Fold Pleiotropic regulatory protein RsmS.
Amino acid sequence: MMNKKQQQQSTGQHTVKHSLTDAPKEVQLAVDLIYLLETNKVDPELALAALEIVKTDLQAKLQRKSDE
């Protein structure tokens, strides 16, 4: 049997999971990326620099797609 604190933690985790399931896809992806970066202890400055490269690449792909 769970104590009150465990019940609150369990309920809180369920609420977060439920909220993320209902969140827009870009929010879900952002949370996944943040988790990936944090669990791999990626330096925030390095992560931002890499994300700028990714952003530039994706913008170029979108531009090429719209030019077709």
Remarks:
- The chain has a mean pLDDT of 85.
